[in-house]
Amino acid sequence: MAEAAKVSISTVSLVINNKVGARIGDDARRRVQQAIEELGYRPNALAKDLVSGRSRFIGLVADAIATTPFAGQIIHGAQDEAWRHGFVLLVANTEGNEDAEREALAMMLEHKVRGILYSTWYHRQVDLPTGLTEADCVLVNCFSTADVPAVVPDEETGGHDATTMLIEQGHRRIGFLNTTTPSPAHDGRLAGYRRALAEAAIDFDPDLVIDVQPDQEGGYAAVPALLRLGVSGVFCHNDRVAMGLYDGVREAGVAVPADLAVVGFDNQEVIAAHLRPPLSTVALPHYELGQAGVRVLLGLDEVGDDGRLTVACPPVPRGSVAGLRPGVIAEPSPGAAR
């Protein structure tokens, strides 16, 4: 390029890097800029990053969110927010492979990323992988006992709002199909359920809380117990449990929502919006978690005293919740299993 512009290499460098105060004549500057256009020169961004110690990359290392449709929104949210602030997101989906995780982190550190988001497809406690804290880092949809900021869903308020959807329609005998799996979702959603009952002056009945497999089979298997308990509404740990519940009550001759109102959790669009009737649920804010992770990393949002930023789980009312029919409290349709 210096030869094409008929100037020295140092002059080319000064023009390309827009060096303030450099003594370069207008004619020489014009010739260098013309040579840049004619030769299609593009600066080596990686080399500049290595020299400056900064880059326009933000890393995201995840276990399986790229292959989990609803959790993949974490990537989408992080990508959009990173781009909004002039950064590009580097994504490594490791499928839980520790060697792949280690190599991904090493690659990101070599590229001097601005920071690293470490994310899981479901909310849980994690052990920090080796190398993660060598850069600024934020945990997304997970947390650790280490002193690392985390962005997580507000499970308790989500459980509260799910139960409140039923209470507001007049239901007072409300079952909760929780998961058998120990997790923040298990504890937080139960706490929210209990808080909503207390606020409505409804006594908590532990018999109305049934732990089930967190899948369609779990919801289906719980139907006989729910009918025996005489509930008028059910809050399900997730949408898959609710889908199984739909199957079971349909076989029992119980109509949703006329005989039994149902609320799920997650807002998995492939399930919730396409059940009949469409399932009222609470959304896991995956897109917003990704956004917030980038914002915390860049210092635009702050975590609380506990090192966490909680993101709201918004209610999504649909057709599976309705008020009680006059004079009817959890009475199944004729012929329903008792």
Automatic annotation (TrEMBL):
Pfam families tied to this protein: LacI, Peripla_BP_3
Keyword RNA-binding: no
Domain (HTH lacI-type): residue spans on this chain: 1-52
InterPro entries: HTH_LacI, LacI/GalR-like_sensor, Lambda_DNA-bd_dom_sf, Peripla_BP_I
Leader peptide range in chain numbering: none
Alphabetical list of SUPFAM superfamilies matching this protein: lambda repressor-like DNA-binding domains, Periplasmic binding protein-like I
CDD domains for this protein: HTH_LacI (cd01392), PBP1_sucrose_transcription_regulator (cd06288)
Keywords (A to Z) from UniProt: DNA-binding, Repressor, Transcription, Transcription regulation
GO molecular function: DNA-binding transcription factor activity; transcription cis-regulatory region binding
DNA-binding is among the record's keywords: yes
Name this polypeptide is given: LacI family transcriptional regulator
Species: Nocardioides ginsengisegetis
